[in-house]
Amino acid sequence: MRIATFNINGIKARLPRLIEWLDETRPDIACLQEIKTSDETFPVKDIEATGYGALWHGQKGFNGVAILARGATPVEVLRGLPGEAEDEHSRYIEADVHGVRVASIYLPNGNPQPGPKFDYKLRWMKRLRARAAEIWAEEIPAILAGDYNVIPYDRDTYSVRAMQDDALMQPESRAAYRALTGDGWTDALASRHPEGGVWTYWDYQMNAWPRNAGFRIDHLLLSPGAADRLTDAQVDKEYRGREKASDHAPVWIELR
Prior knowledge:
The record marks 218 as: Important for catalytic activity. The record marks 149 as: Transition state stabilizer. It is a single chain. With 256 residues, this protein is α+β, with helices and mostly antiparallel strands. The protein has a single domain, classed as Deoxyribonuclease I, Chain A (4-Layer Sandwich). The chain is built from 8 helices and 14 strands. The protein has a 6-stranded mixed sheet. Strands 5-6-7-8-12-9 form a 6-stranded mixed sheet. Strand 1 (2-7), helix 1 (15-25) and strand 2 form a beta-alpha-beta unit. The longest helix is centred in the middle third of the chain and has 22 residues, at 116-137. The protein is globular and about 45 Å long. It starts with a strand and ends with a strand.
């Protein structure tokens, strides 16, 4: 079983690239972030034409997450992350599909920091950890997949100096992410590439893609029931280099 996460950076603007990737790689489950469309305008017919069922939590113009399943319709478990009733951002959706629990996550960026956006990021991460603990207690194969907007280690960026003041790499952001892995969730990509140097994001600016000036912020965290079945974890890097591509590349795992 192949499970992928892909920050598409606007599903309507990148729809040809998304369809292309689905047709060429055929993941069993695909978690999307930054779909940037309302629930009403999500291109469900185009997705279904590729052989995928879909579940989505949209928001006009920004944010938005979705879960796609090949030959099936994901069964919704939770829409929106509990713990802050006034939070109206569409950043979390959770479903059961193909015998596993999957969450698609678009964690807040947090810039500029310090400030209210960074405070919101840290509160969101605390809420995510609380939900992760509830999923853990169910003792099921589970994958928390998405754009975490966290660079976990120095080895996960092309330049520590360039990113040192960014919210993605602050000690508080890293500590909140490592709290999840400390709870027992396995960082799939890190487990297969412990030496680092594997990027999932390249900015559109500063010639980042041609210079390979990227960093790793898209993660799949696995419960023990999923981690025990992990056979591979990789990045579909080439898709970042295609015409009108997202600034993220798809990341995927394979489970027995």
